[in-house]
Amino acid sequence: MNDLTPKRIVEELDRYIVGQADAKRSVAIAIRNRWRRQQLSEELRKEVSPKNILMIGPTGVGKTEIARRLAKLTGAPFIKIEATKYTEVGYYGRDVESMIRELVENAIGLVRERLREEVQPEARRRTDERLLDKLVPSPHTIDTGVGVEDAAERHERTREKMRAMLVAAELEERRIEMTIESKPKAMMVPGMGGPGGGMDFDMQGMLEKMLPRQVRRREVSVAEARELIFEQECEKLIDEEKVNSEAVQLAEESGVIFLDEIDKVVASDGGKGADVSRQGVQRDLLPIVEGTTVQTRYGYVSTDHILFVAAGAFHQARPSDLMPELQGRFPIRVELQDLTQADFVRILQEPRGSLTAQYVALMETEGVRVDFTEDAIETLAEYAYSVNQSTQNIGARRLATIMERLLEQLSFEAPDMRGGSASIDSAYVRERLEAVAQDEDLSRYIL
């Protein structure tokens, strides 16, 4: 985290996302401030709260992608949720506290994966020993005239020979008998978890502990047995209490919650019907964003230092229509710009895993080489921008629709073109898209 300076974070985001410099700078500073806070004294650290961010901009301009790439870059617990999925406490549906439980589950996965990597060498050693126990059972002293010491020496020599064969992968197909335990899964019973319909707190864990483990014996190859035993040994070596405590701390100190479609919980002028519930969701969100303690199956989680990044198009509402108290909890506001035709050209060429690179790679699996010329890229960007202007503006997502339409025939015929090639130029693009793009009714439904 020390080397993730704001400039470095922006550079990493630039590799995947075109434009939106203001938004990138804001999130980069917010992430760096989290590291800065960790360097403070404990007394002062408690006083420094994260500066939550409100992203304002139309769909398809990169709001979600910025948050997603940021979470991968930092390795922090991250969840993306939609504000419209939550209802006011007392109504049937998910309550806002469930987002904190989801964040902790995400942190549990991250911590468990890290600890799993740490115990892998010991788990592999134990796995080999258990496999050898299966392949070379301990000697039993029977009346054969062979002494106990001689039998033990012979067993040890045989075991070392088998160990060498095991390391050389010469025994992978040999069959051995394994005892396999499977954890019981508690069935979800409607209504057990409260209005949200899910199992809150440790109800599910309690039920799973009460149910007996399923034990069965089956014959498997050494290769299969190695995987099964390795998983069992990793599970034994990982300290679950350590996982839980570290995950809760990680979620509290480094967690990021991306709250999408925040504008959809803004009440209209009427203030009736569904608007009442929307206002209720905002009221329930307020203490979570402000800082409270939420009970989870892994313990109590404080939300004081969780970073919230909210986003919305705000077509039919304004950020000022949010509750004043909630507005104040998002001090950093960033407006993302509509994508221009030049942006579309860059999106098709510059990011890692761009759409053109994806389709080239997909066609290569069929043995077909596809090339996109410069003028083809320009024409694709022109059509994407034009259709966005004449119909609904869905931003960069329009490019995926247009590319699929453009390469539909080639994708269909590719298996019969093995060893061939295709050059996508401006003329090809116009031939495939002109008729649809010019007809506004058709483009509304097809592009």
UniProtKB/TrEMBL annotation:
Which positions does UniProt annotate for ATP binding? 18, 60-65, 260, 325, 397
Question: From which residue to which does any coiled coil extend?
Answer: none
Q: Does the UniProt entry include the keyword Zinc? A: no
Q: Which GO terms describe its cellular component?
A: HslUV protease complex
* Predominant location category: cytoplasm
Which top-level group of life is the source organism from?
Bacteria
Keywords (A to Z) from UniProt: ATP-binding, Chaperone, Cytoplasm, Hydrolase, Nucleotide-binding, Protease
A GO molecular function held by the record: proteasome-activating activity
Q: SMART domains, alphabetically?
A: AAA, ClpB_D2-small
Q: Which GO terms describe its biological process?
A: protein unfolding
Q: Where in the cell is it found?
A: Cytoplasm
Q: Which ranges carry the Clp ATPase C-terminal domain?
A: 339-433
The record's InterPro entries line, in alphabetical order, gives: AAA+_ATPase (IPR003593), ATP-dep_Clp_protease_ClpX (IPR050052), ATPase_AAA_core (IPR003959), Clp_ATPase_C (IPR019489), HslU (IPR004491), P-loop_NTPase (IPR027417)
AAA+ ATPase domain residues:
49-336
Q: Which HAMAP family does the protein's record reference?
A: HslU
Q: Provide the function of this protein.
A: ATPase subunit of a proteasome-like degradation complex; this subunit has chaperone activity. The binding of ATP and its subsequent hydrolysis by HslU are essential for unfolding of protein substrates subsequently hydrolyzed by HslV. HslU recognizes the N-terminal part of its protein substrates and unfolds these before they are guided to HslV for hydrolysis.
Q: Which family does it belong to?
A: Belongs to the ClpX chaperone family. HslU subfamily.
* Summary of subunit composition and partner proteins: A double ring-shaped homohexamer of HslV is capped on each side by a ring-shaped HslU homohexamer. The assembly of the HslU/HslV complex is dependent on binding of ATP.
Stated name of the protein:
ATP-dependent protease ATPase subunit HslU
